[in-house]
Write the structure tokens for this entry.
Amino acid sequence: MKILVLGDIVGRPGRKFLTEQLFNYRKKESVSFCIANGENAAGGAGITAKTAEEIKKAGVDAITLGDHVWDQKNFENEINQLNFICRPANLPCSNPGRDHLILDIDGERIGLFTVLGRSFMGPKVSCPFKTSDRLISQLASDVDHIICEIHAETTSEKESIGWYLDGRVSLVFGTHTHVPTADGRILPKGTAYQTDLGMTGARESVLGRDIEACVGRFLDGMPRKCPVAEKDVGMQGCMIETITERGRFVSNYERIELREEM
């Protein structure tokens, strides 16, 4: 079974690229299931029910979220009706939404959850390590594979949770920084890992945003809007193959990148 996991979808350009390219890519690569982070899908910050449904229609089966989960007005009243979305699991339990998903894929069951990092991140959240412990304990007897997303700023925190969960989950992938890392591999105890998947958005940009506006912020420190960029759009992420016949493990990992034709 092949599972495709995509980095943060940034704005309309990212959604448009998926609508135009994802189904053909899934067919070509025989992808069984697709997961994507959607926390930047609506105007570059947050997500709405409408954009979530657009992403699902484009071929993404499950959507995870991050620190911008509540940026769009009224999403807190929409999330419970979207059974293919989970919000970060270590937010306060009073937050609406699911803290994990259980996905049925070709007769196999996948447990999926996201935890937010705590270094240089805004939301006040519970320990991502202890939250992961809780969810793994809760899911282990009910699923064939567990996938954990660490949505965090620092490489050290992402790597630490990768090593902490090695051998306990099938995949740990990082998101949030929008730049793909070159450290993807299968760790010694069998967990596939990549520090950051990158993004589904415009690469002629600063993290998916307009270059001139972002550079201007660094030059003079003045606040200004940084609109979503639109050039050189593509998707970045990873793909794993899972096997259950001889035990639950990942048989293959690869980083993926698909760009629009120039």
About this structure: The chain has a mean pLDDT of 95. The first strand starts at residue 2 and ends at 6.
